[in-house]
Amino acid sequence: MINKVIATRYAKALIRLASNKEELLVYQDELRKVMTVLEKERNIVKILNHPAISVKEKVKFVEELLSKECLLGNMRKFINLLVEKNRLMFLDDIYNSFENISSRLQNKAKGVVVVAVPISEKKKALIEGKFSKILGLKVELEVKINKGILGGVITQIGDYIVDGSVRRRLKMLRKGI
Length: 177
Prior knowledge:
Layout: H1 2-17, H2 21-40, H3 44-49, H4 55-66, H5 73-84, H6 91-105, E1 108-115, H7 121-135, E2 138-145, E3 152-157, E4 160-165, H8 166-176
Parallel strand pairs: 1-2
Antiparallel strand pairs: 1-3, 3-4
Helix pairs in contact: 1-6, 2-6, 4-5
């Protein structure tokens, strides 16, 4: 829970730095680049959490690690701030919060639809259209297959969940008996 609060605070700060929608997309792309580089470096957690290494050395290490990436000045400063405040470990959560807030600002929402069997693009577009009407946002859904739901669909968009699975219906029937 505290991770989300911290992540949201930093994501909002980064969003305030963006002057337009295009810059939001650039920051999102740069955050993704940073995450990719840091995921490849296995020892980074040990180095950043080591108490004998000074903050200056940690910042320098991360700057060197990211030197091959062409990051904007604001993104470099943002990453350095995360290192200085020992918040780089929250980068995944910050990215997710940034993406969610950025999408809302652009009247978009991303979500997941879970189905038992693959669905056509036409059905996916139909589900997206229905949820777009309900939420008043342009909804983009990622399809995931889970045979355990037996049939139907489970849709999650942010905190909004609609469980229309056969598994849930059977569970409700059992409770009623």
